[in-house]
Amino acid sequence: MSAAPDLPLWAALLVSVLIVGGALVTLIGSIGLWRLPDFYARLHAPSLGATLGTGAILIGSMICFSVLRSRPLVHEVLIAVFVTITTPVTLMLLSRASLYRDRVEGRTDVPAEDPEPTEP
Hints:
Radius of gyration: 20 Å
Order of helices and strands: HHHH
Mean pLDDT: 84
Shape: elongated
Number of strands: 0
Largest sheet: none
Low-confidence stretches: none
Strand content: under 5%
C-alpha cells in the first residue's frame, strides 16, 4: 500500500527532483573519494556530498510527508542537525589524526608544525 498516488503532481515532481539531486550529489562525493589523489584531498569531497546530498534528500522527505499529512512535519530536522554537526567534526578529527601520523613518520609532503604567532 503506497501513498504516492495521493501526492499532488507539483509535490511529486519537487520531491523527485530533490531526492534524485541529493543522490547525485552524494554519488559525486563518492566518486571524488575514489578519484582524488591523496588522503587530504579525499576528505573534502565525501564530506560535502554527505552534507549537501543528505540535506536535499531530507528536504524532499519533509515536503513529501508534510503534503501527505496536511501539516508540517519536521522530524527530519533532527537528522539534518546531527549530519551537519557530525560530518565536519569527523572530517576535522580524521585530518588531524592523519596529519599527526604523517608528521611522526617524518613525511616531508605535509605542512610543518603550526607557526609561532608573530607580533605586529
